[in-house]
Every structure is written in C-alpha cells, then in structure tokens.
Amino acid sequence: MVDLSKLAKPNKTIREHTDELLNSLEILYKNNYISNKIYELMKIACEYHDYGKINDKFQARVISKGRIKFDEENEVAHNVLSLVFLDRKIFEKEEDYYKVAYAILNHHQHSNNLNAFSEKEEIINEFIKKYNGKKIKKRVRNEIGKYQNDIEAQLLKGFLHKCDYSASGEYIIEYPNNFLNKSLKEYFKNFGFEMNELQKFCFENKDKNLVVVANTGMGKTEAGLLWIDNNKGFFILPLRTAINAIYKRIIEKIVKENITERVSLLHSETLSQYLKESVVEEEKILEYSNKGKAMSMPLTITTPDQIFNFVYKYNGFELKLATLSYSKLVIDEIQAYSPDLLAYIILGLENIVKAGGKFAILTATFPPFIMNYLEEVLPKEKLPIYKKFIKDENKPSIRHFLEVKEKELDSQLIKEHFEKFGGKTLVICNTVKKSQQIYKELESFGLKDKIKLFHAKFTREDRKIKENEILKIGETEVKDNVIWITTSIVEASLDIDFDYLFTELNDINGLFQRLGRVNRKGLKQEMLNKPNAYLFTEIDKNILTNESGTRGFIDKTIYNISKKALLEVNGKLTEEKKVELIEKYLIYKDIKNSTFDKRYRDIKKYIESLYIGEKNYKDVQQKFRNIVSFDVIPLEIYEEEKNKKIILENEKILNIKYEKDINLSEEENNKRREKLKLLKIKAKEEIYKFVVSVGQYDINKTGIQVDIGYDKLEVVNCNYSFELGFERVKKENVESKDNDAFL
Hints:
By secondary structure, the chain is α/β, with parallel strands linked by helices. It contains 31 helices and 22 strands.
C-alpha cells in the first residue's frame, strides 16, 4: 500500500500535491481544452506520477530542505520508481498504458530514465519488494521507449508537466477567455465601427485554418482577435516594437479590465515594458510576468522564438506543444521571416495542427511559395482557406504612383525633389551603413536642419527618442518639411504616414511593406498626379547572398525576380496589381533553386533529424534568434561622467547576492528575494539605456567590461553620435566583412 501521507515537498504530502494536479487538470477539462480520452488518461498520470517519492532517500532529502543532495550512486529518481506502481490492468487498451507510462517515467528527465532499470536494477528490486510494486520487464520498457514520437504520449507528458508546474508554482494553470467576444463588441460599438468583410470572414471561419491577405489599414488586428474569439490565443509578430504597440492598443482600447488575468506580453524585454506601461503595481510585476511565461494567460502577444522553439525537441518541449494543442495562433506578416525562421514556423504549424491547434496567417503580402511549404507538411483537410481582401470601399484603390529607376539610391535626386516639393520624405536603405552614407551626403548639401536618421544601431535611449519623434511626425494629420533616412526597421513595425518615399530594392514583399509607410490611409489623392514613391533597383552586390549562403542577407534569386517584376511597373500602382505581381513572380518553381529555398530545406531537414533531448533549452534560444547580435556600450557613451556614474552604481546592484535570513520564514525570504529581483530589473534597464546591438565584426574591444551579474557587456571603440548612431572603427589585421544586416 502506498502511503500518500508522506511528503512530496517540505510543506505538502504526496496526496495534497497530487490533488493539486488533479484540480489543475479539472480546469483544463472544464475549459474544453482537452478531450475526454486525454482527460481520463491524465487522471491516471497525475495520480501515479509522484508515488515514487515514498522512498526513504527522497523523504530524507525533502525533510532536510535541500541540505542532503541526490545520491547518484545509490538512489533512483522518483519518476522511475513511480512507474512500478502503475497497474496495466486499469487500462482498456494496452497502448494507453504505454502512453501514460511514458509520461510518468519522463516527467523529470535528468538522465536516460529507461536505462535506470538495468543500471540500478538491485536498488529498484529492493524498492519493489518493500512496497509491493511490479517489475517492469525489458520487453515492456522497450515498448515504452517507442512512444516518444507518439503525439498522444507527448501530449500526456506535456499536460503532466503543465499540471505539475502549476501545482508546484501555485499559480492558476489557465485563466479563462470569457471576455474577448464581449470586449470586441463593446469596442466596435464605442468607436462606431461595423465589421468589414475581412473581419466578418475571420469571425465566420473561426474554426478553420486561414491565410488572409489584406491591405494595410483594413483592421487585421481586429480580424485576428475576432478569429480567436473566446479561445486561448497567441498573436505572433516579428518585431518587439510592433508587439508592444499592439499590446498597448489592446489593453487601452479593447480589453480594458482585469488585464493581469487576460492579456500578456512575452518577449525578451517583457519586464521592462511592464515597468514602462505601469499596468500593475511594481510589487506584482514579477507575478504578472510569470503568468505569461507559464503560458497561462488567455491572450498573449509574442515573438516567434517564444512559441516555435519547441520544434528543437529540447527536454520538456511537450509542455509547450500541449498548450498549443488547444490554442489559436495569429501570425502576422509571415513573408518578413528569414528561411531559418520560416522553417521553424512551418514545422511548428505541422505539429500544432497535428496536436489539435489552429492558425491564421494575416498578412499584407503572401508569396505563393509559402503555401507550397504548408502543403508539403499539412494534411489536405487541415490546409488553410486562402482569401484576399484587396478592395476596401471606404478607401481608394490607388495609394502609390511608383517611378522605377535602374540605378543606385541617389542623394542628389532626393535633395532636388525635396527642394522642389518639400513635404514629409522617407528614405529607406537596406543597411545601416548606406543610411549613414545618405545622411552625410544630404548634410553636405546644406540640409542638416532638415534631416533625421533612424536605424537599429542607436543606444536604446536614443532609439526610443527617435522612434517617438518619427511616430509623431508620421501621423497623417501632421504637416512638415523633413527627410527621415531609415532602414527596414520601419517596414512593418511603425504606423507612419509620409508624403514621399525613396527606397532601395530588397525584394518585392519588402517594397510593398515600405510603400505602406507612404499615403498609408489613401487620403492624399491630390499628390498622385506625380510619383510619390521612387524605387532604385541597383544595390550593393555584397549584401546579396552567394551560392553557399555564407555571404549577404538579401536572397539573390528573389532580388532578381523582384527586379524583373517591378520593371514592368512605372506609374500608378493599385492594391490589386501588388497582389498580382506577387502571385505571378514569387511562385515556387521560380525560387526553388534560390539560396532561400536551399537554406529553408537544410534547416527543416536538420530539425527533423534531431532526437528528443539532443539540444538544451538555452542553446535553442540562442540558435533560434538566427542573427547573432551582441550588446555593447560605446566608449564615448561610457566615459561621459554622468553615464559612467549610472552604469557603475547599477552594476553594483546587479552583483548583489541574495543571502537567506534564517530568522525569517520562507514566505518572507521569498518576498525579499522578489524585491531584490525587481531592483535588479530596474538596474539592468538603467544600464541598457546605453547599450547598442551590433554584429561581431563591429566589436573593437577596449578591455573594459560591465558586469551585469550573469554576463558581461563589452565597452567598445567606435564612433557614436546622436545624429549618426554607431559607426564601426576599423581594426588592424582583421578581415573586413560587411556584417550590416542589422536594421
């Protein structure tokens, strides 16, 4: 007989902890997040998962409150021992026993759990004899091992993790989405809106997978929320700037109550964003953030790396897959992703759909070859419905008069045009280096007071100032005579409306995104009697990919196809024509020999070849981010007296080690620990005001480092100014490589 009055944790018995798991399971079931079958099997998994904790060595360790460590030589993990109590006779089907056994055996995975039965056979047999357990024969163990790739076994393991973590962390496993439909109705009513055709379509097809192409400004965010309806949902966007903007918009205009139980952010700077937004009292920020990390919030706005990294099958990936099995994912602007990220997303969608989840891709442009990728991995009955919404009766069909020039971006032409027509002029370059060059050339023409520069290689503090300024200038109603020189950073992340555009060609999708920053709302019809957008097709060949994919970041094949397509355009460009060009030129047969396609297939093949647990979570997070960037502090910034004082004071805070006070209770110690953690978050935020993200070839070390506790920031030699941002200083004896892919 198993004595469940023994301890599972210092303050809880096995029975109490098990009941907490079962309570969490009930929440999932009552929200219709799991099927009847999974529910019945999960009740068994939850009940038996910690029975192995009755062993004497575990009890001694838990009573010692961590002073006694796990004995690798003479102890067996409790999850392995739990399996000997699982009775095969309680299952109607033998395969269900194997699935539950797999979940119980592997809900902790510090080593190969199946091997323990042979490596520590004597200890396990003594345990079985003492507690009347059942021997697990080699044939049965081999059969259990075969279920690691079974989707139901993976889901059971994932739900067991989810219930266990919820019980152990003492947070609600899922907050209900019983508000979104009502919130959207009130939002439409308050602003006097009616659902347009796009939004009606998404709402009416909320039980289907979708790919929806719609013009800028047609309400794709609202359409995505209507599709999610009162279900668990994730909004996935490529850039933190856009994520933060949508989060702010949702909590201020749509879901305005009980935010901390309804809407969360999930990206690498969530805590600092919560501090800025002041949506919750400071002492509750960590609690709010932890709900988001645990994926227990009904609506989460996030980046792809937070969702699709599970495809790497790191230990414990099943928890994320289980959560996504009852979720709805809205993916914004899928064409903006690199081949690596696209491979992760496509493979992720394959597994999510297989597990029971749904997705909707809402985008301004959708290259047909991406549908080919989806068709290769999804069953026919699960393929998305494809629908275009190009005409908007409330908005003009023509917003752009495009002039194509077969030459490099020309600062002289920009100057002449500005002097003749004035207005708000936007210049978009493919690299930071090019944007700085154009700025300097326009400055030499005597336009210093009329030009601004914005790209990713500014300190966070300067970047925020510039971002706020361009957003203000970019409001449709604002009139001004100014030239903003930028990079692709403005393509999809900023809601701005300029009068004129001068841009380099990257690819046809990118161009149409860039065009969306000019006459954005179609209200400037009087300006369409002449070009309001100028495309320069010739670019630096060094940034085009080579055949091996070791150089460049703009795919050469797609660039050449885009150039060919756009040379047939010169004049007014309708929204219908934009979609037509993409559908005509970006088809799979024309890009199948591209570096993009090769890279996509190589990454996909590599991920599919991985076995469970081959990669650890930390390595996966780094790999997933694709472009390796380094946070540094420019020497000029560091040496400024007031800056240095701030940096050194906060460096000390980040290196404070928490010392437990034995005179205080565990709860009081936890509160003090949380307070210090929040203090460190603020300290990091203060230091990171002076940080710039750069490539590895930008780094020219000074030997000075800022110790931020878990890592060190390099202080680097460079040229830096508020006007130009970071400029690389050439190093002696270092091969010069253009690593200027950062926006």
